[in-house]
Amino acid sequence: MTSVPIIQTDKVIKEYGMGNVRVSALNGVTLTIGENEFVAIMGPSGSGKSTLLNILGCLDRPTSGEYYLAGEDVSNMNKVQLAIVRNRKIGFVFQSYNLLTRTTAVDNVLLPLIYQHDDTMNEEEQYQRALKALDSVGLSDRVMHQPHELSGGQKQRVAIARALINNPVLILADEPTGNLDSKSGQEIMALLSELHKQGRTIVMVTHDDAIATFAQRIIRLFDGKIAIDQLNGQHQPAGAIQGGEDAN
Amino acid sequence: MRTKKVIRIAWQGLVRNKFRSLLTMLGVIIGVSAVIIMISVSAGTEATISDQISGLGTNLVFVYPNFSRGGFGKDVQNNSGGLVYDDAFAISDQINGVKGVVVEQNSSQMVKVGNITIDDGSILGTTADFPTVRDMDIASGRYFNQNEVDRKQKVAVLGSSLAEELFGEIPPVGQVVTVGSIKATVIGVFEEKGLVGEVDFDSRIYMPITVVLQKFTPSRLSKIMGDRVKMIYVSVDENAQMDDVIGQIELLLAKRHDVSLDSPDFMIQTQQDIIQTKEATTKAFRNLLAWVAAVSLIVGGIGIMNIMMVSVTERTREIGIRQAVGANPNDIRLQFLTEALLLSLVGGFIGVLVGIGGAWVFGILGDMRTVIVPSSILLAFGSAAAVGIFFGYYPANKAAQLDPIEALRHE
Ligand SMILES: Nc1ncnc2c1ncn2[C@@H]1O[C@H](COP(=O)(O)OP(=O)(O)OP(=O)(O)O)[C@@H](O)[C@H]1O
Ligand SMILES: [Mg+2]
Predict the structure, then answer these.
(1) By three-state DSSP, how is residue B336 classified?
(2) Do A115 and B321 count as a contact with CB atoms less than 8 A apart?
(3) Residue B267: what are its φ and ψ, rounded to 5°?
(4) How close is the nearest chain B Cα to the Cα of A220, in Å?
(5) What are the residues whose beta carbons fall under 8 Å from the beta carbon of B6, sequence distance 6 or more?
(6) How confident is the model over A94-112, as pLDDT tens digits?
(7) Are B14 and B343 in contact (CB under 8 A)?
(8) DSSP line for B158-187
């Protein structure tokens, strides 16, 4: 593995609200995830899983603490800089798909390319690249379909194609199978495993133990803190493997 | 290439809600069409006025009877408050610096030559100076002289299109034309003059005013007071002082009518006065339309702002998605600003069409001349665009400042 981890956080704290009614969603999360890891984040409802994932995805900023993404300090970036990081380095997959309505699959997939300001790729190249991404998730026969013409599993595959199109260093998925039946869920997980095999780094939030078995490493949050961080199938206390890389 | 994309995305946003977009544009449509109609009406009036200036001949003074002077009673019983035919001669004989005096009296009579009949032929009774004062040239024959006017000779001079209509190829001079109850000899034909203001000078018959007054518009009072006339045109010598001549006419007429200069029974106007009155009327109308245009553009802008606010709220989720995949605040602002701009520009375009159509309808229905000014279209588009940007900025900025997480969580 490379010397620079994909994710490195130090005592990340996230608090909501102001004054005396402060809720802390994250209570000092220190975490390292290396290249080509496949990590599942688990934990009870309200334990801060989504909050953590949003910070890792640069959709949100920590109240305090540090976050290095592929060696770059992103914890103090402004909105415009964060948008560039989301665009270039991160592919996000949501539980509720978050596709643009009344927009074809291919147009949804190439959406990130529209926001590449310095890119010289022309529209034809963008389109071809979106077609390739759709092909890689097995949807080349649904290119011109709009979200309301697709099944839940298909929608999630469009979302994964969109997450892949910018060739990001990190793929984040917040309960990607949460809205799907078990069969479609299995298909989506097979797809994510395939991406992992191709060398992608994936961090996924899930409630489902069966889904978590696809990951190599499982992090359990409790009250905004990492309670357990273990390789899949092993039972190891969190402290033993803090520092990430040696988990591989 | 990026601009094209931005415009396309914004366009798709509008097409999704066609009817709503159309309603939103209504204010802009009204505002823009008002701008165009307003400018075309005032341009039309200016053109009419400038035609009148060149058509009337220069240095003209108009003398009207004034019936509305202060107080009834004594003055009315005094039988004043009118201009008579002889006033014109007094002016032409006794005032220095007068080049010519013309008295006019209209009438409508049946005109007949052979088997060609015009039921309501337009007759103009005038005096010998008419061609000089009104800048008319004779094409063939001659105009009648003062001697013929005084002797009430039954002679006629024809406008060019009327001559053509009555006589065709035959030379009209020397022919006889039946006008109402009399037969008149044609002694001349005018060159083509065209429309002056709204009057067609080419389709009239010109006859000595004495004949018209006696045969076509007789009045019982005329035996006592002389023939009343509606207007006297006085053409002033180029080198004479206009104000001086007007002063002299006032004094003369006041003396002849036995009235004081403080409440005369006549009114004297110059061409300049008439143009100014007309311009004041158009200006009032133009100001009114300018207000209508400004108010509807603002109302239209508020409409756009309102819909854009609704749109931003409705599409919060979409904004969140775009932010999640890398749109920065500027991208979002640009998208919504472009939508507002497109709304106002498309509204502006429809408004231009409506305005051109409206100006045309105005020209036909109202007795108003309208001229479409190309630069008014640019002005209208420009103000529509300004409205779009001005009123679109606040909602666009609101969209740009949405937090991605909250936007994504929005239902
Ligand atoms: N915008 C917010 N304002 C206030 N509190 C918030 C906000 N977002 C999250 N929280 C709080 O932060 C805590 C963690 O929320 P988070 O969504 O990360 O939980 P989660 O682990 O993803 O739960 P679930 O499994 O139900 O999705 C919760 O107590 C939640 O109420
Ligand atoms: Mg969650």
Answers:
(1) helix
(2) no
(3) -130, 140
(4) 23
(5) B334, B335, B338
(6) 999 999 998 999 999 999 9
(7) yes
(8) E-HHHHHHHHTTS--TT-EEEETTEEEEEE
